[in-house]
Amino acid sequence: MKNQTMLHRLAAAALAAVLLSGCSALGGSSQEKTTFYSLAAASDLQPIMTVGAPKIVGVGPVYLPDYLNRPQIVTFTSAYELDLSEFNRWGGALDSDMNRVLTQNLARLLPAMRIVSLPVRVTANPDLQVVLQVLSFERTADGMVVLVVSWGVLSDNGRNALALRETTFRVQPTGTSFAAVVAAMSETMTGLSIEIAQEIAKHTGP
Fold first, then answer.
1. CA 196 to CA 149: how far, in whole Å?
2. SS3 label, residue 147
3. Which helix (H) or strand (E) holds 148?
4. SS in 3 state form for 107-139?
């Protein structure tokens, strides 16, 4: 009888060990904490143009490829393989975050203008509209953060293109953490904002 009781206890312990091992393999430790990130606007931008016609500039929409349109932060481990981090996620939608940062950066670069995120209810239609088609925006297998984006500056309610560009920005993160990656992604957004502001200034300056 004692031997049977001991065998039952050993079997129960073995089963518990198997179940714990399976949970760890599938989802990681139950104590794993999810961290949420957000892109940041640049705080040290100098105005490109402080005078000129008080135009309304609408920013958006921002179009993302399907593989980026998700809450997990995406990194590439090879040219063909991507990793979705379950425990490192965006605090909101990435396209909305990019729209917000671009709007804030342009407001600092073009203080004479009214910069608004679209869609928004305003008293008049925007004089100019900035649209973005993101082609890639992630840390690549070589450790660099890369932003490839097609963008345009439109007028006449989108009927006239003042500028159409495709630009690539590459920034080396200061470390391998996701915080460093998101900081480098924010830096690429700063470069994009400056390029777009310079284009707007060409068409609206005195």
1. 12
2. strand
3. strand 145-155
4. HHHCCCCEEEECCCCCCCCCCEEEEEEEEEEEE
Nearest residue to 149 via CA among 172, 161, 132, 171 = 132
Asked if residues 87 and 32 have their Cβ atoms less than 8 Å apart, the reply is yes
The answer on pLDDT for 174 being more than 60 is yes
Of 69, 74, 76, which is closest to residue 84 (Cα–Cα)?
74
pLDDT at 9 over 80: no
Q: Spell out a b/e string for 157-186, using b for 16 or more CB atoms within 10 Å of the CB, else e.
A: eeeeebbeeeeebebebeeeebeebbbbbb
Q: Is the pTM value of this prediction over 0.85? A: no
5 pLDDT tier (thresholds 50, 70, 90): low
Dihedral (CA of 6, 12, 15, 17) sign = negative
Torsion of CA 85, 86, 90, 95, to 10 degrees: 70
Q: Is residue 18's pLDDT more than 80?
A: no
**Spatial separation of the C-alpha atoms in residues 132 and 49, rounded to whole Å:** 22
Q: What is the pLDDT of residue 32?
A: 82
- CA–chain centroid gap for 18, Å, is 39
pLDDT at position 26, please?
Answer: 39
d(CA 195, CA 17): 57
Average pLDDT over residues 58-86: 96
